[in-house]
Structures are given as C-alpha cells and as structure tokens.
Amino acid sequence: MKVITLKQPWATLVVTGRKRYEFRSWKTNYRGKILIHAGKAMDKEAIKRFEHFHLDFPTSKILGEVEIIDCIKLDPDIHKQIIKEDPVIYGHEENREGFAWVLQNPKEVHDERIVSGKLGIWNI
User: How many domains does the chain fold into?
Assistant: First the structure.
C-alpha cells in the first residue's frame, strides 16, 4: 500500500478530517487510497496552535488512510479560497506555492507498530 509521511500535527489533522489539503512542492499523478504516517519530526509551533482540539499527536506510526482525489497547482486565488475554507488550519502561511493534494474519506487506524518514514510516496 502507498504511504506518505507527514510531520505532526499535520498527520493527525489529516486522518481526523480537519485538513483536506496536503501542500507539497511537487505534483503527484497518484490517485487513490494512501496511508498517513506520522514521522518523527514535529512542528512544535503548529502543535501549540492546535492544542484547543485536544488531540494526540503520536509519532513514527501509521495513523490512518485517505484518498487522494486531485492535485491542484496553487496560485494566489486558489490559496485564498483554501484559507477561507478554514483559516485556523490553512491560514498560517501566505503566498504558498506548489501543489495542493485534495484528500477525502479520512479513516483512522490503530496500529501501534513503530514505523520509520521515508521521503515522497513509498510502499509498506
């Protein structure tokens, strides 16, 4: 199965359905289910911003799966639209460039195995 490693809190926000877009500098042609792996690295500043959600942010684990349904080239108008959808989740960075992977059907899984992450899309 395909896997993508994300830093926390982003991995948890994706599998709980709070984050519907994953921003990357590179385009993907992959469409379909992909596992979300929480890497070792944490964005501590972002975790503080989301403390009010009262979520756990485990690391080095597979947290769930989502479907990638599209990959959109970002421009200022599209980025503004995404920020309007949820300023708390998406409003931390202005003039974002690259691509927004559109995600749907998040599903949490409870897998306690420790898993090392990798760059890019990888197979488990």
Answer: 1
